[in-house]
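Sample pair:
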Amino acid sequence: MKILLACQQSPHRYPIPAYGFWRTYFVEGLREAGHEVVEVEGADWARGLIPLTPADLRRWRDETWSRTLDTIRANPDLDFFLGYLYPRQIEYSAIRELQRLGLPAVNFFCDNVREYRRLPGDFAPFDLHWVPEHAALPMYAARGWPALFAPMPCWVAPARRHVPEHEDQVVSFIGRRDPLRAALLAAAAEADLPLIISGGGWVPAVTPALPPPSPTLMARLDDWIDFYRRQGFGPAWQRLTSRRAAAPRETRFDFLPYLRPEPGDEAYAAILRRSAVTLGINRYPQLGVEGDAEPTYSRLRDLEAPMLGACYLTEWAPELPQLYDLGREIEVYRNAGELIGLAQALLADPARRRALRTAGLRRAHADHSVGATVGRIIARLGLG
């Protein structure tokens, strides 16, 4: 298949959460499966994610989608369009035009359940939605939009697709700090697990930051309206009237002895592969819910770690029983006590660690590759 791909490609590095790896995962995964990838020359897709004035965003959309349609006209043998696009990046009329030109349009989007209670209408024009969260499927069904449940797109270089010969006797977590992760990892550290942590937000600032200026009434109103549009009336009203802060309480635990430098790409893969136990955390905040009752959904790490041959211990999420044989290919916990107990048991059992690594790696590459998912998309679109 010849696929037009738009997945946050950019020649620039913007001060927003990491996005450059998506191009690698999509492009290499598609090429490995034998597909031809076409990209929009000169398009800066990630620019549509940074704060822009309404006029600048309009200009960006006009320029980017004009380039996209020109690319389609120059490649009449394209089979379909595959995007990873946020609502603000989508131009309804352009999607309709590419469909008029004979190109089905598919969009991948993750974090549906964390970002929305009701999906925004911007997603409406796509022929198919690639959805990695099981709990989001009813949201698409409620809108009458066709959706395909499939894991996150992930690709690992062939040289890393084996179980490592040597391990470091540590329990590792890589990821940005948030209060839920901090509370869980504080419990793990207090249980004397050989924990190492890296990622953004864990290292305390040398100089205390000045408190941000109080937002104006209009800014607070705009923020509430945006929250209402994403989450619906009930959560928005609760946020407006509740005395509980929107963010979970932050732990005072001192993580400094457990911190390691934030890794680059090579170090990231090495830590996941070589740690005796690699942790995943899948919970996310929801108003009125705290602790182990917080909802969960499967993250990209649930693909990356097994594909790298990690001994992977992650938080249970509703998608995981559909992706893995739990307890044989990966191990899962539901609360801090289970995390600690399972990590201790795995640290004491090298043979079981190796068995998990081998089975998880085999399953992830056999069933959860980009090529496997795109094969299902092709069948669903009737292109095969």
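The first strand starts at residue 2 and ends at 6.
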